[in-house]
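Need tokens for this chain, all 238 residues.
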Amino acid sequence: MSVGWGQDCDDGIEVELWGECYNIEETTYLDLSNSGLTGEIPPEIGNLINLTGLGLNENQLTGSIPSEIGNLINLTGLGLDYNQFTGSIPSEIGNMTNLIELGISNSGLTGEIPPEIGNLINLTYMNLSVNELTGLIPQEICNQGDSSPLLFDNNLCPPYPDCLTEEDIGYQDTSECIDCPDSIEGDIDGDGEVTILDIVLIVNCILSNDCDDCSDWNFDGSVDILDIILMINVILEP
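Here are the structure tokens for all 238 residues:
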């Protein structure tokens, strides 16, 4: 179903999605799975603030998942499996703290998993498998409790959070990942110990915006003052 001729929706009361009008107040469940939808998900989807369930599985949806989807804070189930996205997961997904089930598998997702995914503490099921996700898995994913997220068949790089099992992670194409030196955490120069020289090196890479994943030794997805503080603590420990 591509966008049709459209209807004369009542502004402020209804929202038009894929040529149909949906009442903003009364629409609490919307399942358009396997409906032949094409194009990008309209940002107006975020106006249906009373939705508790949204299913758009098995369509030909493309582009990025709109940030406005984060407005759907009452959602308990979101299904976007089997689509053709070319963008990443928006950080605003972390606003949807009532989510219990989240599926975006086999959908062409790119980019990194946002750390805000850890805000979804009520998840019991999450499937992000068979995509093109890259970078490190954020440590915040461990905040989800018993969701046992499925992440296999992506391009996610080690080290992986300890809360994840081998079954959660499965096969990952790590051919584009940086091979960090086999040394202790915080040992930037690879000499076998953490010293003031390692701190100098990480400060310089931060100032020049030239840090790699090997410098992110607290594995939070960025190299910043927190990494330096951890290194200082290691040096000061007796």
